[in-house]
Amino acid sequence: MQELKLTGSQEQILHDQVIDANQPGSILRDFQMLLDFVGTEGVKAAGKYNLLPIEAIPELNRRLSRPLVWNLQRPQLRSHPYLQGLHLLLRASGLSRVEGAGAEARLRLEAQALESWRRLNACEQYFTLLEAWLLIARPEMAGERAGRGDIPLGDAILTWRGIPARGVKFAVGQPQDLYHYGLGGRRYHAALMDLFGLLALEHPRQAVQPWHPAGVKRVPFGDAVLTLLGEWYWGDEGFVRLLHEGASTGAIHFGRWQELFQPYFPKWRENLVLPEIEVCKDIFLFCVSLGKIWRRIAIAGDSVLDRLARAILDSVRFDDDHLYEFTYVNRLGAPERVHHPFCEEGPCTDEVRVGELPLQPGQSMTFLFDFGDAWRFDVQLEGIEPRGKGRKLPRIVEKHGKSPEQYPDAEW
Description:
Structural Genomics Hypothetical 15.5 Kd Protein In mrcA-pckA Intergenic Region, Chain A; 2 domains
């Protein structure tokens, strides 16, 4: 692959670029529109991934700086790459959270994070969102299934490098042509590149299904930014770090690219600060089910997940002789796994406490025990109670159903 190296003219482009609500793209204006729409009351969270509600999509489209022309009667969020991309930023930035579960789930703004956001200037907000997208975001935050090696920064660089200098036009109604240029898979990436002013997408004049651009061309600012990020990505093990980092239960910090961009954008002085995770030490009541059997388990919030794992196994009389992992959706909307202490990959269950999990009553996580036999338990948080004295924890509060044989086909 040809080496990326920032030129003197590209450095000047970065020095000269003004960042405000309308440039280099409309990202700040359109993202603020979404914040205003969600508002203080929040909106209904739709489906498995807690997305923006379907009924809100037409109104949100009308409020965009450049609304799409389409005629879908009941569009999904993925039908609208621009709104899907904005939703992704809403989750990846930590400015939103999901309250409740199922039909009662609502997408709300995180008050403390929003206060920090409002103190940032336009330049700082722009790069906060850029980091949220290219460093933190995961496909599940936008309602997509994850694939192997999903790295938004790598996808953006490869897409940009695949666009010829003269640009390219696409036949209306033939979206398959987009795949040749890296634009056809997750189109919200292309939409975000347009919103951030990194590429210029031409919209078709008539409605097309599925929506796709009529053309795309490179812009000098995007060439400069993506060249600089490409140097970072391919050098100093940036690629390797991104494979092992991303959204996690732990603290999310912005400003990783501040040293890289600040020589060109001296107004980048502050960063978005998300509220710290506090460990709740009260009693967590879980309903742990395996098929038709279930157990109700009470455990203190300051207990580590390894202790919960042992309590689950004790409740069904399983030997604790295999590896396991917990999987849940973290506070940014991406699946996260916490592994057995003997696993090489972290975080581990002897490091994460029950009371710091981003679970609310009604929400669940999965406990997978024995990667060979794959015993899969559903662990639903039923409630959180004040911690009293004299009660042994963890404890099995209630049992329903006979425990299964751990090794039904074993020959001893």
